[in-house]
Amino acid sequence: MLGGVDEKTLAENPLFGRIVPLIRQYEDLRHRNYFSDSVRALLRQPGREFTLVGADNDTWYLKPVVYSKHKV
After folding, report:
1. What is the distance between the alpha carbons of residues 20 and 14, in angstroms, rounded to a whole number?
2. Residue 43 C-beta-side C-alpha neighbours within 13 Å
3. Residue 38 in contact with residue 21, Cβ under 8 Å?
4. pLDDT digits (tens, 9 = 90+) for 38-66
5. What separation in angstroms does the CA of 20 have from each of 6, 27, 39, 53?
6. Using CA atoms in the order 22, 24, 27, 31, what is the torsion angle rounded to 10 degrees?
7. For residues 28 and 17, what is the distance between their CA atoms, to the nearest angstrom?
């Protein structure tokens, strides 16, 4: 994802079309320094996972999530 997403990549991987708006929102908030230093410190902790949640009044927060690991 570091190189960006072009039309060819979107055509080859349609799911990228769903993730691009999420990345754009994360990056916008990151560039605006939206979250405090304490929240950013939580994000740096190895193994911790969060999802971005938006409220109706254009406020954002990060909600902790836990993913079950499954081996096939």
Report:
1. 11
2. 14
3. no
4. 999 999 999 999 999 988 888 999 999 99
5. 11, 11, 23, 16
6. -140
7. 18
What does the block give as tokens for 64?
A: 């902790």
Query: 32: which DSSP letter?
Result: T
Rg (CA), the chain: 15
Chain centre to alpha carbon of residue 38: 18
Torsion of CA 9, 28, 37, 65, to 10 degrees: -50
Q: In the beta sheet, which residues pair with residue 53?
A: 61
Q: Which residue has the tokens 């996972």?
A: 49
Q: Is 61 helix (H, G, I), strand (E, B) or coil?
A: strand
Instruction: Indicate whether this model's pTM tops 0.85.
Output: no
